[in-house]
Amino acid sequence: MKEIITGAEALMRSLMNEGVDTIFGYPGGSIMPVFDAMFDHREDFRQVVVRHEQGAAHAAQGYARSSGKVGVCIVTSGPGATNTLTGISDAILDSTPIVVIAGQVSSAVLGTDAFQEIDLVGVTQPISKWSYQIRRAEDIAWAVARAFYIAKTGRPGPVVLDFTKNAQVAEVAYEPAYFESIRSYVPYPKPNMDAVRSAAELINRAKRPLALVGQGVELGEAHEELKAFLEKGNIPAARTLLGLSALPSDYPLTVGMLGMHGNLSCNVNTNQCDVLIAIGMRFSDRVTGNLATYAKQAKIIHLDIDRSEIDKCVKVDIPVIGDCKETLPLLTELLDEASHKEWIDSFAEYDRIEYEKVIDKALNPKSGPLKMGEVARRISEATDNSAILVTDVGQNQMMSCRYFKFTKPHSVLTSGGLGTMGYGLPAAIGAAIAVPERTVFAFMGDGGLQMNIQEFGTIMEQKVPVKIILLNNNYLGNVRQWQELFFNHRYSCTPMLNPDYNMIAAAYGIPSRLVTERSMLDDAINEMLETDGAFLLHVAVEEEDNVMPMTPPGASVDYMIFE
Amino acid sequence: MDKKLYTVIIYSENLAGVLNQVTAEFTRRQLNIETLNVSSSSIDNVHRYTVSLWCDEEIINKVVKRLEKKIDILRASYYTEDEIFVQEVALYKISTPKLLANKHISKIIRHNNARVIEINSTYTVVEQTGKTETITKLYKEFAAEQCVLQFVKSGHIAVTRDVVEHLSEQLYVFDEDAKRVK
Q1: CA nearest B64 in A: which residue?
Q2: ipTM reported for the complex, 2 dp
Q3: Which fold has domain A193-347?
């Protein structure tokens, strides 16, 4: 006989059935029965109470992106739910599997503007992979199983469950539910062998092939398949921001980062290659620059699991739809062993120019204020380039992503599509909880840190060992850079009058150091790494440092400025 | 870009909220829906949407791919006018006293092969099925006689010119494709 339990308890059982071990959340009126049930499951789930629901959503994202598992957050209706919208939007753009469970007023009063009622399904449909209102306790097991199945399969994404209070308190004969397929949803499309063959022929004829590697490789766990493909075809591979740790930074065929603040070599050679092979990337405008002049000389092959990405921004010659873990080996099988030495060597000359004009100055300044780039590189090296880099958004993001090095997969967590300031700190909390065996750095700016600084409370309470690096330039640095370059130095609303961040950290019991001189840096990094638990490394960096090189907005991908 | 009248045919699971997702995909691109028809299909629990709109092919292609990506949408395809049979149904409620007083009105009904489906002392309901132009023509003729009390048309409903209806087979294929695992 099936056990009779409450809907809230049925939710607990359903989450356990999905293997959930951590819940990020914040209680409130319409979700109280669920939090009451959680009280009996303190041993089953790590229950992380954040200080603002936006933090819960980003923490769930950080948890998911670092571990590959589905991140879960539970919040109340109305403002609790709307506070997660930024995280849900971030997760849909960056393909992050999270399940947001929000309380909702009882079905009987739906539509009456009841206290803390909003139409969450209506609000979240355009920003989620699936959004569903549970109005009956009988639907809980089905809805939760379906939510997890949808969130994690195919191209992952956020799912929202809007859980009415009457369904939380009603009794139900619980029986676990399982999903193996949904007939209207094809998460892993069957590869079309004609397309694979055409793509292989094109690559085999190529003289100057270039692979563009995106997060799809990480999501598909296709790291080894990618290497086999690149090695057999001797194909240089540039990575997108989200694909940075899909290949080790020092892997011989890695040729840099694409995009507006990426490396000169791969951006220029995007317009020099004869065959462009995009793998699990979506031709974001931050990668392509002006589409009218983007890779017009090249034949383009696009491997993606999501059919709707094909021809979305860039018209492709051969789409290869499917999971790249499946399609890459099919393609590799048909490749001729090739050598493109001269072509691969052509990247080095651009690398030399970039090193001379930008990198050397960023990494090895002899005097003057500390540079963001040198801080990032020193911290990366101090952990043998094996740590997880979580960034906020802005100059701290571009600088740390440019100068950090990666040796392991799933090592870069950054808000790429939505560009969410405030993402970094809570996402790092989620990552540090999900993968306690790895060192997690949160690179923050003084703007973004303040957007979710309340999560210092979560770090304190949960003893989360996140190493926070605050690159403080007393500006909203990225906007200031644009103002300097494109708005005639008019620094409108970008200077920051900052509080004493070390005192704030101290108030939360987080040890910290303030670094103002280059000579202090190594010692402070060592102290940070030797400290058990959280640490704030507050670095006063050059105030008007710019992220270079840069493809100015609207310019062609191969046009980069250096100052 | 050349704008054409496209008809989008969508099949979805019969779940609340799908219509919202369908229309949102058009709204996002500020595409103005000309006609929209939603009804049950020949298959239990599968709904069929017929949407017509002026658009260029590049855009409609992207919209349809995004529609098909929605979890509860089974299939979405777009057609130009020469690829489908399109019909509309219209009802014209006209004044019975004017119909009796003006012989021209009954001539209009006969010449247009329209059907009278209700007559009472105050009004008469006339039905017409056909292309949009046929329906509009009849409306204009009635309007010229100033006898129209109400007028409504259904929006496009359409069937494709394909020799066989694929959906039942397709459902089986979907099921097979959907079962592919990582």
Answers
A1: A308
A2: 0.90
A3: Rossmann fold (3.40.50)
